[in-house]
C-alpha cells in the first residue's frame, strides 16, 4: 500500500472501478486487467501497467486495508462513499458468505442424491459453480469442513457429510415453515 498520504495513488482509477464497487467487481476488474497486461500476452502486454494493477489489487483487496484506504481516498478526492465502509460491507460479505455456504451444500447434496455411492465432486467444479476467488473458496471450504458439513474423499473430491445433509434438510424445513409463521401472524393481527 502507500507509505504516506503524500504518496497518494488512485487504486480505483488503476483498476478502472467505481470506489463503491463490491468485492466481486473489484476482483473481476483485477483479473481482466492482469490478464490483459500480463507479459505473456504479446498483443497487450505492458509490464508497468501489469505491476500497477497487481499493486492496486493487493492494496485494497483486504476489507480492513480497503477501509483505511477509503478514508485517505475521500480526503484526497472529496469522494463520498454511499455506504458506511465500516458496517455494510462486512454485513453484506457475511450474508454473501452464508449464501455461498448454502449453495455449496445444496450443490453437494444434489450430487449425493444423484449418486450416493460416488458423490464426490472435484474442487474445480464446486469453485466454478460458485464463481469466487481462490481465497474465498478456501475460506468456505475451511468453514464447512470445520462444521463437519463437507469432507474430502479418498479420491480428493468434495462430498457432503451426514451432518451436512441434516443441515440442508433442517434449513429447507425452516424455510418452508417461515412463510406459514408470517401468514399466521398477519391473520392474527388482522383479527385483533
From TrEMBL:
Sequence ranges assigned to domain J in this UniProt record: 10-73
Cross-referenced PROSITE patterns: DNAJ_2
Pfam families registered for this protein in UniProt: DnaJ
Keywords from the UniProt entry: Chaperone
InterPro entries: Apopto_cytoskel_mod, DnaJ_domain, J_dom_sf
Protein name, UniProt field: Molecular chaperone DnaJ
